[in-house]
Known about the structure:
alpha/beta, 11 helices
Amino acid sequence: MDIELSRIVRAIRRFWWIVLVSVVAFAGTAAAFSLTLPRTYTSGVTLLVAPSSISGFTLSEGSSSTQTLIQLATSDSVLGPVKQEFGIEGTLDELRQDVEVSGSSNTQIIRIWVTNEDAQRAADIANAIAEMVDQQAQVLSVSMIKSKRDDLVYQRDQIDSKILVLNQQIRDLESEQASSGTVESSRLAQLKDERLNQQKLRVDADNSIRSIDATLLGLQPPVVVTDAAVPARYPEGTSRVLLVAVGVVFGGFVGIAIMMWRELRDTRVRDARHVLQLTGAASVTSVSTSEDVHMAAARAAGVARKLGSSAVALVGTRASSPTESRIGELAQDTVLRDMQVVRVPGLLNTNASFELLPLNAVVMLFIEQLQTLEEDVLDTLGVLHDFGVVSVVPVLIQS
């Protein structure tokens, strides 16, 4: 549906306040809604996982060190002390929901994100979790290394026991052979070879134990903080300014839609141009003073003479005081003194007087500005057409 620019301008002049009210209402609603949203801040700390291997032993057998530390970061052993340190209310599960840990087995980078209603507190908690992860990782690492050392010590003790048994067996065989004067038997040679192998195993165990002891003395932190958490400058979620801006834009669209809807629903005849569009006439006569009425009468007489008619019908769409008054004035005009004048103030109200209308009469159709509806004009034209009226001269009664 095409809408003329002039009609859009007129709608803006008439209903600009609707757009203003809509914008204010939606912007205010958006602002009020934004105030109900919790303001949360997120701060993150970055950890670098240091390589930790001892004779093929990793920090967590069966999984990568990174994945182990990711699980450790949200464990009760880490979050429990942090919760107690900061006096965080709620359960550990609730705190765990505010902590996000990311990383993968392909990298040695771990990021810990903490969300809190206070920016500084979020950063402090994130740094505290990182520190606690480092402490717990050291404890875990030392515990595993010591466990490995204990296993090696146990193996060494077992080897020592075997060597003692072999030494006794060798001494017994040597005494038996010395007393009998026989040469060294294959059994004695086998025992000596076995003792030699056990002694080599013991040396390897001693070397491994010394290596572990040296590692424990120079053990490096399992994780290193590369980027400490700092307070976030802006809260998470949708910006309040953005919400208000969306409210302004949406309110503007709604206001414009309502404005144009009201304008399009207003079918009152507004001006002479509107009358020309409805009637299809070449011109329209506007009357607001007695002088205008005289000019309208002169025009009607001129059209009648041109068509060879001596009758003029003064027709209104619906009976009303302004229409009846102007029809009365025009009927009394001296220009129409020699013509047959028929008054029909309200054609759509009654058809009784319409039978008096001469077939060749020139019809002057009176339309009240901002009072007559488009459909009344079109219905009146339809009735006139049904009765064979050919010439219609529109007259706009200006308010």
